[in-house]
Amino acid sequence: MTAGSEGAGVSPSDNSETVAVGGLNGSAGAPGSGNSAADASSPSSTPAPLIPGTENYDCSPPTGAVPPLQLAPFVTGLNNPVFVTHAPGETDRLFVLEQEGRIRVIRNGTLNPAPFLDLTEKVELLTWEQGLLGLAFHPQYAQNGLFYVHYNGAAGAAVIAELRVSSEPDVADPASERVLLTVPTVDGYHNGGSINFGPDSLLYIGLGDGGGLGAAAGASRLSAQDVTSLRGGMLRISPLASDTQPYTSPPGNLSDVNPMALPELWSKGLRNPYRSNFDPCTGALYIGDVGDRSWEEVNVEPPATGHRNYGWPILEGDECFGGAAAAGCDRTGLTPPVHAHPSANTGGPQFQAVIGGAVYRGSAIPALRGTYFFSDLYGNTRTFRYDVASDSISEVVSLESDLNPAENDQGLVAIQNGGDGELYFVSRGSSGGGGAFAPQDPIGTIYRLQAE
What we know:
Blueprint: E1 18-21, E2 24-27, E3 69-78, E4 81-85, E5 93-98, E6 102-107, E7 110-111, E8 117-118, E9 132-137, H1 141-144, E10 146-152, E11 158-165, E12 172-183, E13 195-197, E14 203-207, H2 216-222, E15 233-237, E16 265-268, E17 275-278, E18 285-289, E19 295-301, E20 315-316, E21 319-320, H3 322-326, E22 339-342, E23 354-359, E24 371-376, E25 382-387, E26 392-393, E27 397-398, H4 400-403, E28 412-417, E29 423-427, E30 444-451
Antiparallel strand pairs: 1-2, 3-30, 4-5, 5-6, 6-7, 6-8, 9-10, 10-11, 11-12, 13-14, 14-15, 15-16, 17-18, 18-19, 19-22, 20-21, 23-24, 24-25, 25-26, 25-27, 28-29, 29-30
């Protein structure tokens, strides 16, 4: 692969190769979650969604031609929105995260005045990258009322916590919070963000390397290659309490093939996996990993794979990074991204922070089914299709002229499915400028993708 290429399909390394993470090799064969997506690549079949709660998604093959597209304002007046999602099986509500710690409810296109949950007293923002970052509803939410959040707490540490809805469906019970996991940070950058339930009904947590600026950045980077650190990796846990344990680590994780690895680890070698998503129709995991100064990348993990080393900080994108280049840049056991593009710092367009997105699984625009949408905090939404059978992607196509013809500073920070598989884009209203967090006027907007 040539990093930054927007040509035809690109094949990442075969998923049966040997993976070297933290200096210990192990087979990277699929651990087997019991959910096969083999049929998803066959145009002659229409598989049911693999993830509980996504039964209203449309997994049928694409049909027809792609019409001109637009982003239509859906809800405005949000304060630093960073994420949107739905509860399992629901099509009438969306849940929006506001960075300072509130979860807001949109019911049938109307924003509720009172928040679903207010964690502002617990959320600590050392930098503009921190806050309330991720939300995932338990697959049996309709029965148990449980949901999970990822936020930055005391001293900026990553907190993964479980909460429960109250007797009122649009109000959570803040007293029900149960902290599962707390992971310290170095200086408040590279936090990761998204948490997702996979086809195996387990919780996947993307954590960045925890560093960013100054002398501490070098040590933080190394955590991504250290299997005794949860930083710089994708975690996979069963979040329900078991006896005295706040959560459990299931079989099939990296420690199965690398005894030195922490039991929660699924894959390593990530810098800042801010936004990630599963495609419920194939089981593939899409990870947008924010780069350093040269390359932005998207990784796609075939269904039930794991055990991957995505290369940071040996690689940035598909290129050798910093000192690794001088040292010879050993690529043994590393999985390159399916797509990488240069940032503005290396002469590319205004790209500096990739925003991983989601696969369109709606019915309103049939030609888009199976298309992955992703963007950048500083502009240019693009798409590609991933083929599970060949483990490759199609040509990358820019939609900026359709979706942002005025070239406004949208500050897109998430692209997510609604309960019907349609896509919603989260705009902060501006891209921001780094450094300390600064509250802004409530100009954030949720857009819905639709045909013109």
